[in-house]
Amino acid sequence: MWHDIIELRNFYQSRSGRIAQRLLRRDLRRIWPRVGPGETLLGLGYATPFLRPFLGEAGRVIAAMPAPQGGHVWPPEGPNLVALVEEFELPYPDQSIDRLVMVHALEFAPAAQTLLRECWRVLRPSGRVVVVVPNRRGIWARVDRTPFGHGNPYSAGQITRLLHRSMFVTGTAETALFAPPAERGLGLRIAGPLERFGRRWLPAVGGVVIIEAQKQVYAATPPGGRRVPARVAVAGRLAPSGRRRPAWAPGRGVAGVASAPPADAGDTGPD
């Protein structure tokens, strides 16, 4: 079951959520030091806390939030870049995305391989994806007050094999978030050294697994890879799961909204 948008937003406004955001942003930047001005970057799941550094760099940044999760406007200071989507029928043409970031997505999907195959469909032949999932052996997966404590956690081997079955070539799976999810007594100055220590000496207990993969192009299009045009809902006001959402409307990519955006959620600003 997908995590609720309100709980995701509230987590990234908390102390431990802000620390997790900054640490994972650094890891994503280390994997992708630069995104080209002609590239399109898609964030799938609840990826907005990690997309801001790419706004002035990539040619286009899109945030796709699954309809069962809900969505909200982002960023607050400009045109809305968020759309509610049907996760197994992404409203983007074949081979239209250069880079894809999946956070708070794969662990909640009822059919993880189907979701990955849909990502394979929209990625260009040289397209790359970074997947962030809770680590089955980590502390964060055992604490249900964070979104990493919900859904199906993965070990490094499990996520690697799943990506291989979904026709991706993978790099080395790494772990991150070694600082415990504490609300008090922990700051970024302490979390940083803990991150370096854990990465070197205790890699198995990191809170999340991070892995980069590249689309494998010599294989045929995966079964069900070509789908009918999907429908997309604009993320206007906060739309929690379990409540009525904005009406579906045909469209491609991201549409704008007329309503004024609420205060930024899930983004604590520049690192």
TrEMBL record:
<dbReference type="Pfam" id="PF08241">
    <property type="entry name" value="Methyltransf_11"/>
</dbReference>
<feature type="compositionally biased region" description="Low complexity">
    <location>
        <begin position="247"/>
        <end position="258"/>
    </location>
</feature>
<feature type="domain" description="Methyltransferase type 11">
    <location>
        <begin position="86"/>
        <end position="131"/>
    </location>
</feature>
<dbReference type="InterPro" id="IPR013216">
    <property type="entry name" value="Methyltransf_11"/>
</dbReference>
<protein>
    <submittedName>
        <fullName>Methyltransferase domain-containing protein</fullName>
    </submittedName>
</protein>
<dbReference type="InterPro" id="IPR029063">
    <property type="entry name" value="SAM-dependent_MTases_sf"/>
</dbReference>
<dbReference type="GO" id="GO:0032259">
    <property type="term" value="P:methylation"/>
</dbReference>
<keyword id="KW-0489">Methyltransferase</keyword>
<feature type="region of interest" description="Disordered">
    <location>
        <begin position="239"/>
        <end position="271"/>
    </location>
</feature>
<keyword id="KW-0808">Transferase</keyword>
<dbReference type="GO" id="GO:0008168">
    <property type="term" value="F:methyltransferase activity"/>
</dbReference>
